[in-house]
Description:
This protein has twelve helices and no strands. The protein is an all-alpha fold and 262 residues long. The protein has one domain. It is globular and about 50 Å long.
Amino acid sequence: MRSRILASALVLGLGLVIAEPISASGSYRSRPPGRSVVDPVRYNLGKDLFLGRIDPSAGQQAMLQKILAKLPEEARGEAKLDGLAGKLSADELASLVHYAAVTYGLEDLDPEKLALGQELFEGQGDVADEAGPTARLQADRLAVIDAEIPAESRPARSLTSLAGRLTYDQLEALEHYTAVAFKSTEIARHRYRVGERLFRGERQGEGADAGVAEEAKQLAALEAQLPESARAKADLSSLAGKLTPAQIDALHYYLVVRYKLR
């Protein structure tokens, strides 16, 4: 279950978009998608990361500073967050945020996300009427979440029925809410354990490197799918351990849409 959670968190980024495969014949021409399908914020963030226009670790630094600022004064001395920015996998950063939220009541680290997740869980909120190209991958992530919810707490609307109908933000919010609301689930336990060790400075050496190594492997596999002209610009594995979950998602989104990866 743990490896499945780690793989889903990275490969999906909670919102990876699948485009049509590249044709095996003819010349390849990449172009941005039409206005009707592109998410400009997500696309441009991914493009900036791919082209090296922004500091990839800045997002992690900002989130770590936000956690420290929200901690009660007596807890700040326990936090060993210095030097972690630019060294965490996306899953590890999500785990650290989860630990802080649960242990110190910091759901207000992102209260809008928590509220949105609860709204979607309870069958409210606007979702797409029909499943889009993300359906298969969203179904895998939603199935993991759904399987971990206690039987007595299952929502009337099956979470897997939302596959392909959620935005990246909605799927991330839904996972965040269920991890906070149902702390006994495997997803929540895994994130809490990892987050606690990071918070206390206990996740060092081989244990800490494992998440980054897995992320580097996934990014290298993504890079291998790029056309030769794009690979010359890319060094995706060097980004491992520097990105937030939203940045991982944006990078995947940009590459899949721009280069029509599988």
